[in-house]
Amino acid sequence: MRDIRIEFTNERIIPSGGLAVVGAILGKSDFVKKLNRMDVTKNRSQHQIKNGDILLTYIGMLCMGKPQFDAVREMEDDPEFYKYALGVAYKIPSEETLRQRMDDIGRTIRSQILQENVEMLRANGIHPAKLKEGYVPVDADVTPMDNSKTKKEGVSRTYKGYDGFAPMLAYIGTNGYLVNTELREGSQHCQCGTPEFLKETIGLCKQITDEKLLFRLDSGNDAFENMGILLEAGCYFNIKHNLRREGKESWLSMAKEHCKNVTTPRDGKTVYTGSDWRMISYKLDDGTEKEVCVRIVYEIIERTTNKYGQFFLEPDIEVNTFWTNLDWDDQDIINNYHAHGECEQYHSELKTDMDLERLPSGKFDTNELVLELAILAFNILRMIGQEALGRRNPRHRENVKRRRHRTVINNLINMACHVTSHARQMVIGLGKSNVWRDVFQYVYGSFAYFTA
Questions:
Q1: Rounded to an integer, what distance in angstroms lies between the CA atom of residue 153 and that of residue 168?
Q2: What are the contacts of 75-81 at 24+ separation with CB within 8 A?
Q3: Mind giving me the DSSP string for 95-154?
Q4: Distance CA 136, CA 130 (A)
Q5: Where does residue 363 fall: left (phi above 0), alpha (psi -120 to 50 degrees), or beta otherwise?
Q6: N or C: which terminus of the chain has fewer CB atoms within 10 Å of its end residue's CB?
């Protein structure tokens, strides 16, 4: 084995050249200028480092998958590059300044961040991908975050059996752009606060697209109030029905009596698929009650043997039911709800790829700000990944719909580059052995020079 000699050099070799793309995307709006004019700490003198610089730096950290405040120290070796790449006006903040200012800002700019997310998507020509039927899906779901063995504000027992948070997240389109978040205590029921969250999400989605919206929710959000909000807003829905105290046997007997679509995939297994109609009532904004008739699609499976032919002492009954106002075939409604499970992959990208499972602060409001800024970082990574699809790279496969955030971070954000300055311009040099350099050049050009 040959010996390898390690030498230190004064050359400017940056491990995160992809932040130049992040800065190009964020530089198209006046979001930072608006933040700089906001005074969130009235009890202190004027800050040299503006709020915009604080949040730009942290969004860059999120795009690198490094949400912990101490990760900002990695920018200290060459602050000029990170300042130039992200568009920071004054300087990169220290860890202490970053943490303290994030605590000061807290939840005060939630509406501005959500609106900036809408403007960012529109400014870069992002159109959420539709289903083949022409509807734009909106998946809203709660995902527990494990923050066990911490004393953070708001950490409590989740339904998963560990201590943590239980935020509500909403994604738009089949490729999963994050449109809204709400940080919640771990023990909070998933329906608590959901009506207000839905109203806010509907308004945001209608700013992003003019297409018909199809909301998909799981059984924890089976509430007439939610359906009323969606109906009154002109949206469509596919919501898993919570049987609660309804007996499976009564559903099976109804299906045996009325169902006309009965199949037998194998001996000992019978599937009943059909629709029923039920009256629901909900309150309007003026307090009056309104009754409507809503379709409920069912899939009832009766098993008398397992797949190996072993008989059960009693039949095993599985009942899946779905509220909807769509006019699709029963099986299409069922298949469409199953596609709702794809948002679990989006949760994984947020919690694992971006390392946001364990939120960095002990203060609830600061963690809420982190999760709101993660909307921008999440969508920036998604935009880069989608733009890179189909370009020349070593991992291209046919029929790829999107790239995972971990792939984007590893190959396009944390891309080593050689930085030089010439004629008042920063030059990023990519080595000839970097197989992603053509993709990077194309993606940067797409966002840096795109005009809506």
A1: 17
A2: 78/12, 78/14, 78/419, 81/12, 81/14, 81/419, 81/426
A3: HHHHHHHHHHHTTTTHHHHHHHHHHHHHHTT--PPPPTTS-EEEEEEE--EE-TT---TT
A4: 5
A5: beta
A6: N
> Which amino acid makes up residue 22?
V
Q: Where do runs of H (alpha helix) occur along 234-356? A: 248-258, 330-338, 343-348
Question: CA angle, 303 as apex, 297 and 307 as ends, to 5°?
Answer: 120
Q: Span 273-284, mean pLDDT?
A: 95
Cα–Cα distance, 314 to 282 (Å, whole number): 39
- The tokens of 9 are what? 């050099």
Between CA 408 and CA 217 the distance in angstroms is 29
91, 53 Cβ separation under 8 angstroms: yes
Q: Is 223 in contact with 283 (CB distance < 8 Å)?
A: no
User: Residue 435: beta bridge partners?
Assistant: none
Biggest alpha carbon–alpha carbon distance for the chain: 83
Rounded CA-CA distance 359/361 in Å is 6
**How far, in Å, CA of 184 to CA of 140, rounded?**
14
CB 323 within 8 Å of CB 230: no
Pairing of strands 236-240, 311-324: antiparallel
Cβ pair 60, 381 in contact under 8 A: no
Smallest Cα–Cα separation from 211: which of 276, 132, 289, 267?
Answer: 132
Q: Rounded to an integer, what distance in angstroms lies between the CA atom of residue 375 and that of residue 171?
A: 10
Q: Within 300-342, where are the H helices?
A: 330-338
Beta bridge partners of 305: 311
For residues 191, 197, 202 and 204, what is the CA-based torsion angle, rounded to 10 degrees? -150
Amino acid, res. 349: E
Q: Quick one: which of 369, 340, 378, 364 has its CA closest to 220? A: 340
Q: Give residue-wise pLDDT tens across range 91-135.
A: 999 999 999 999 999 999 999 999 999 999 999 999 999 999 999
User: Which range among 42-56, 169-183, 398-412 has the greatest average pLDDT?
Assistant: 169-183
